[in-house]
């Protein structure tokens, strides 16, 4: 029984074999990559831009820093970090999904951001960087899709420099009962239907709603970060806790 | 969330100014890649400006290290426009500055020097005559508002002092202070005499 638990994981509300999750998640993002940005704006009413703004404000990125925007998707955070690190710094846009990376690369090139950005297809559980080599790591709306979150957090801790910080922006749990009911109705009734109409893909957006519910709440994720070795961990809730920004330091 | 919206709007406004007024970008060159944090104690709000040489980022809820950190109240904010007032505000305890004073002065000077030629910028949309007329009307309207404000203040002051007698005239206040000081010194003298007699 123990063996069986270790080899299975969640994919939304379904339980699948751990080895399957990566390809299932990959299918979801291959499917939504082309319309990812427009759907983000549409489904969050543009609020995701405010959540990301606050993430940039908390990142403490300065000139010359080496920043990893993990699961960076279409590069919203990378675009900001690229402007902040200047010519002497570097931003690495990392994603496990090559379709998302391609969309991100095209978008950032169209914005004229080319000098200090690298695009690397990578798995968050085995980051391809030496120990103590990055100043800041951000992972926005990506951690819930990772098969083994603890391993990913340990991997991030390993590659961060002492003094470096990790920021996890992710959907979380709201304490407000009324908001919670409204959010559930929106997630399971409106969101998949909008996904079907706009992106012709209701399944991916059903997975989005389900994966959010299966993601650890604020305190659990904070504890997971501490177990991975992070210190001074804290979080701030956005929009009543629908989204939370966790921050932890490596010393 | 409101703060994020406000800082996003402020960021848009500052960056619009940077494109419209190249002199602002020149004045801010010394602030490139430096962070100026501002904490307003009465609003319990911390925000920061981070200029990268081209674009200015405005952060809300900023609690990180900054090259210069100013802590002040909302009332003193308008006085920061004058760089020469910085040291006076620090000495009077109205402003606390931690870090590079030069950075604060640089921002203060850059925004104080800002002289936006609104007519020039609006002329692209309204034409030269229309833009000039609109700007002139706006200036006149502003002058009239200031004049009305001043006159209403005077009327209100006179009403309170002379008609309703709910406040006193500054001269009466001065007279009262002088009399109180005189009484205080007389009392001190009397106290000394009593002490001398009782010893």
Strand and helix map with partners:
The complex is a heterodimer of chains A (251) and B (199).
Chain A: H1 2-6, E1 8-11, E2 14-17, H2 18-32, H3 36-44, H4 47-59, E3 66-70, H5 76-85, E4 90-95, H6 98-110, E5 117-121, E6 134-140, H7 149-159, E7 160-171, H8 177-199, H9 202-214, H10 218-228, E8 231-238, E9 243-249
Parallel strand pairs in A: 3-4, 3-6, 4-5, 6-7
Antiparallel strand pairs in A: 1-2, 7-9, 8-9
Helix pairs in contact in A: 4-5, 7-10, 8-9
Chain B: H1 2-20, H2 22-27, E1 34-40, E2 45-51, E3 56-60, E4 68-72, H3 74-77, H4 85-91, E5 95-99, H5 101-112, H6 118-163, H7 170-198
Low-pLDDT runs of 5+ residues of chain A are none
Q: How much strand content do the residues of chain A show? A: 15-25%
Based on CA atoms alone, the radius of gyration of chain B comes out at: 25 Å
- CATH class bucket of the domain at 1-123 in chain B: Alpha Beta
Question: What is the makeup of the main sheet of chain A?
Answer: 7 strands, mixed
Question: What would you say this structure looks like, in words?
Answer:
The complex is a heterodimer of chains A (251) and B (199). With 251 residues, chain A is α/β, with parallel strands linked by helices. In chain A, 49% of the residues lie in helices and 23% in strands. Chain A has helices at residues 2-6, 18-32, 36-44, 47-59, 76-85, 98-110, 149-159, 177-199, 202-214, 218-228, and strands spanning 8-11, 14-17, 66-70, 90-95, 117-121, 134-140, 160-171, 231-238, 243-249. A 5-stranded mixed beta sheet of chain B has the order 3-2-1-4-5. In chain B, a hairpin with a 4-residue loop joins β2 and β3 (56-60). The termini of chain B are far apart. The A-B interface holds A 47, 49-50, 53-54, 56-58, 60, 62-63, 80, 83-84, 86, 236, 238-239 and B 1, 4-5, 7-8, 33, 35, 48, 50, 52-55, 57, 59-62, 64-65. Chain B: One of its GO terms (biological process) is ubiquinone biosynthetic process. Chain B: It is found in: Cytoplasm. Chain B: It comes from Pseudoalteromonas luteoviolacea. Chain B: InterPro entries: SCP2_sterol-bd_dom, SCP2_sterol-bd_dom_sf, UbiJ.
């Amino acid at each position: 029984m123990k063996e069986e638990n270790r080899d299975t994981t969640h994919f939304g509300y379904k339980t699948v074999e751990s080895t399957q999750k990566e390809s299932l998640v990959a299918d979801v993002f291959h499917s939504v990559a082309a319309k990812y940005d427009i759907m983000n704006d549409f489904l969050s009413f543009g609020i995701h831009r405010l959540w990301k703004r606050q993430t940039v404000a908390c990142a403490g990125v300065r000139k010359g820093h080496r920043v990893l925007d993990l699961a960076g998707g279409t590069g919203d955070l990378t675009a900001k970090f690229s402007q902040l690190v200047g010519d002497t710094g570097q931003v690495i846009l990392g994603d496990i999904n090559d379709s998302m990376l391609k969309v991100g690369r095209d978008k950032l090139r169209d914005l004229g951001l080319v000098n200090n950005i690298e695009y690397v297809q990578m798995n968050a559980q085995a980051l391809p960087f030496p120990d103590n080599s990055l100043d800041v790591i951000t992972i926005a709306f990506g951690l819930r899709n990772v098969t083994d979150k603890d391993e990913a957090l340990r991997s991030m801790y390993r590659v961060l420099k002492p003094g470096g910080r990790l920021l996890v922006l992710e959907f979380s749990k709201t304490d407000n009962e009324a908001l919670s009911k409204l959010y559930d109705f929106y997630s399971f009734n409106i969101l998949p239907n909008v996904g079907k109409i706009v992106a012709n893909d209701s399944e991916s957006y059903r997975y989005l709603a389900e994966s959010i519910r299966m993601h650890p709440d604020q305190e659990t994720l904070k504890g997971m970060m501490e177990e991975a070795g992070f210190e001074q961990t804290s979080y701030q809730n956005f929009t009543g806790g629908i989204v939370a920004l966790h921050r932890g330091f490596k010393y | 969330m409101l703060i994020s919206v406000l800082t996003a709007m402020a960021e848009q406004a500052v960056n619009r100014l940077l494109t419209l007024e190249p002199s602002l970008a020149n004045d801010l060159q010394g602030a490139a890649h430096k962070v100026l944090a501002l904490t307003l104690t009465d609003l319990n709000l911390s925000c920061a400006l981070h200029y990268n040489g081209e674009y200015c980022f405005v952060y809300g809820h900023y609690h990180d290290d900054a090259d210069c950190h100013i802590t002040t109240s909302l009332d003193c904010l308008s006085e920061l426009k004058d760089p020469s007032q910085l040291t006076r505000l620090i000495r009077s305890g109205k402003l606390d500055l931690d870090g590079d004073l030069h950075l604060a002065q640089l921002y203060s000077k850059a925004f104080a020097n800002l002289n936006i030629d609104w007519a020039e910028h609006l002329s692209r949309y309204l034409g030269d005559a229309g833009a000039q007329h609109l700007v002139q009307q706006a200036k006149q309207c502003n002058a009239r508002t200031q004049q009305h404000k001043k006159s209403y203040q005077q009327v209100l002051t006179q009403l309170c002092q002379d008609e309703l007698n709910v406040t006193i005239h500054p001269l009466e206040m001065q007279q009262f202070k002088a009399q109180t000081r005189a009484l205080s010194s007389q009392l001190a003298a009397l106290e000394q005499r009593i002490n001398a007699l009782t010893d």
